[in-house]
Design brief:
Length: 280
């Protein structure tokens, strides 16, 4: 019997990155990952058909929204087919035997650095350096035998690169989640969807945004997130991104028909099943 072809999933970062963990958790089957060292590269990989799906972090419960990714969602017009809330535990990794007093540089992905800001602010005389990926920082410490550099990364990176966990759980708050979106160019089944991500623009007039949001309220639709991003070239104008959840599909459909008349450039970025926040 012919073997089933594995799905290829574009991730930001390399093996053991949080994106790899997110992709393995979401698909829950053997996958081929395509390692991308930027979110732009990740979108290109999906666009040119190298990947079947892409997994993209969009927000973190400590560090907030990854704003550039909202621009990418707008630019590439992929469909969001699912989401995943992944618990994130950050550790300080070094070569075996290294002491904290010997560390002069700490490097990691900027989102990881922001999630550990409290811990990092308390350290004296340590340079904080941004990298493309948590796992890549761990790999660099190992391969370049960097005795005075520590990486902020997860336990999978520690294991893979034989690094010691010098400090455990250095994230600012223990309930730390990153929300990932699963993107595709393919058509997908929306039968089970109870959540949507939308974007639109409103006139710069009294109450225009409030009126649009009231339409969702009046149809019993729960607004779970709102994020505005600038419209490039139109200073002080914004594109509004919202996430909404519904109990009955008809309520969402009714709200959408009404809101269509109130806003400009309404886009449905995806309709999908709401992810669970499960604390481990
Ligand atoms: O550097 C990684 O390991 C990533 O997968 C990137 C990333 C992010 O983009 O937010 C993913 C999850 C964590 O929030 C920290 C970093």
């Amino acid at each position: 019997m012919a073997k089933k072809k594995k799905l290829s999933i574009a991730i930001q970062g390399i093996a053991t990155s949080f994106h790899e963990v997110a992709a393995l958790t979401y698909f829950n089957e053997p996958i081929d990952t395509i390692e991308c060292l930027s979110f732009h590269r990740l979108c290109e990989s999906l666009k040119n058909g190298e990947a079947d799906y892409a997994v993209m972090a969009i927000e973190n419960s400590i560090a907030g929204s990854i704003l550039p990714n909202y621009f990418l969602l707008q630019e590439y017009h992929f469909s969001i087919i699912g989401e995943l809330y992944l618990p994130i535990h950050m550790h300080l990794l070094t070569l075996p035997g290294v002491k904290l007093s010997e560390i002069t540089t700490i490097e990691s992905h900027p989102m990881a650095i922001r999630q550990c800001a409290e811990y990092l602010h308390a350290l004296k005389n340590v340079e904080i350096r941004e990298s493309d990926d948590t796992a890549l920082s761990a790999k660099r410490v190992k391969e370049m035998k960097l005795k005075t550099t520590a990486a902020i990364a997860n336990e999978h990176a520690a294991k893979k690169y034989g690094l010691q966990i010098l400090e455990k759980r250095i994230e600012t708050h223990k309930k730390n989640f990153t929300r990932f979106l699963v993107l595709t160019k393919r058509s997908h089944d929306k039968k089970e969807s109870n959540k949507a991500s939308l974007s639109f623009e409103v006139a710069n007039e009294v109450g225009s945004l409030a009126d649009a949001l009231m339409t969702f309220k009046n149809n019993s639709i729960n607004l779970t997130k709102i994020q505005s991003i600038p419209i490039i070239g139109k200073p002080s104008e914004y594109s509004i991104h919202i996430d909404v959840e519904w109990k009955r599909r008809k309520q969402y459909d009714d709200a959408m028909h009404q809101v269509l008349l109130q806003v400009k450039n309404l886009n449905v970025l995806g309709e999908y099943k709401k992810g669970k926040i499960e604390y481990k």
